[in-house]
Design a protein that fits this description.
Length: 214
Amino acid sequence: SYDVASAGFTDAADAAKILEVAAMGAQGGFSDLNTVGGATVKVLNAYGLSADKAAKLGDMFAQTQADGIITIDQYSQGIGKVASVAAMLKVPLEEVNAVMALSTKSGVNAEVAFTGLKTSLLRLAGEAGGKKLEKIGININAGTIASEGLLANLKKLEGLDTKQLESIFGQEAIQTMAPILNNMKEYERLLKNQTESTGALKDANDRMANTIAG
């Protein structure tokens, strides 16, 4: 409660909404109250959301766990690395989570995937990356990402060879993005799952409650 209040959610009703999500996420996501609560307030603050959106975020956290090889605990520990950058570039959390799900499902370590996604977003939106893209006739920058969405901009990279992609993203970040670029259809499916994730956190909580560990 102290940490939630310190993050700016001082109203008792708002704190209760966040702590309810944290409690369900802790049980359903192999984590603890502080870790999930901390992730929830980080995302709320990064995207400028009210506590009323906490339940929706919890469902999206749980959907990422269901679709990827990543627990809510791992997600909660890493989302702070990318949330502020994604929000700055107006990349919805749904797109961030779909990347994390597909990347980890394809064998990328969760921590590497978070760092790689942050680097990828900065390279696509930055001046250096933009110049490299311009040379091959592709228009991607912070403006196009914000107005068109990440999915639409990644589709512009279809057909590039490995050397070109590595030059754009860098050796570490390409590990995160390669599974997405190689299977855009699956990325779109996982993105749809995020938008339809209502109830996913309760389902995860209930499943865990019915196990021996629960």
